Amino acid sequence: MEDIKVGVIGIGSMGRHHVRNVRETPGETLVALADPAGDKFGVAGDMEVLPDVEALIAAGIEAAIVAVPTEFHKDIALQLAAAGVHALIEKPLASTLEDGEAIVAAYRDANLIGATGYVERCNPALMELSKRVQAGDLGEIFQIATRRQGPFPIRIADVGVIKDLATHDVDLTAWIAGSHYQEIAARTARKSGRPNEDLVVATGVLENGVLVNHIVNWFSPYKERVTTVTGEKGALVADTMNSTLTFYENGTKVVEWDQVANVRGVSVGEVRQYALDQREPLRVEHENFVAAINGDVSRIVPIAEALETLRVLDAMLESAACGKTVKL
To answer: Ranges for the Gfo/Idh/MocA-like oxidoreductase N-terminal domain (predicted)?
Structure first.
């Protein structure tokens, strides 16, 4: 089977990593790059950096990686769909729900592969967590809680923390639980002087009854990427910064030492950290994209799922604006 001819549009902070992975992923061949801002990170080598998506399409690509600012996703995606080009579009899918719906419709009507770059789903810790949840290791799932915090990123200018960071948490929560959001309540704050929110706290419930909460900000002096799934048999904690997964078993041993019981509770269970295959998540994402184009769509994040995530993000913004819980 011949390699897929791939073009990358947007070779900035995220796109440069896509360029490297296209070059190194079996089944992909890099044939064109485009970025009106040029080659800031020097990833093009001896390749010409084209000015726009029209030039990228004219280079004869079969698939494209879209890593431009979110506000440009719709126009570029529609042109790619019209040209018969499969696309992996970085998260979030679009700036607005209407733009997202237009992208989904275009790829559906053209019968093309449209995937979204929710790379957290390819993190070894979350892949193993999902597998163990599906296998019933936790029994019934009660709650999914996420914390995604870190210093302010200068490179983000077109969206707030909800669509840049919380989008990961919304996507992975629905994926792990296998359920859509039923309702969400959120509170935001703007402390950086920019027009968009830079802190958010959100709580909600999924259609299957699982409780969720998300803490996300750009003001923490340290980076944190933690997902905790609590169920009837204990809790699984995935740290995707360090790619670790730890199981905290519910108490099976009675604590008779009062001093310890005051700190740890009246019973304790085993704690296990799993050994994981440590592969670069973005490489896995590219392999999944290649597989989808070749017929196995089970491993990508379809743009239709990304559209549902966008609905939840809009509901979070609506809730923060009106001060009420929003039902989806």
So the answer is: 4-113
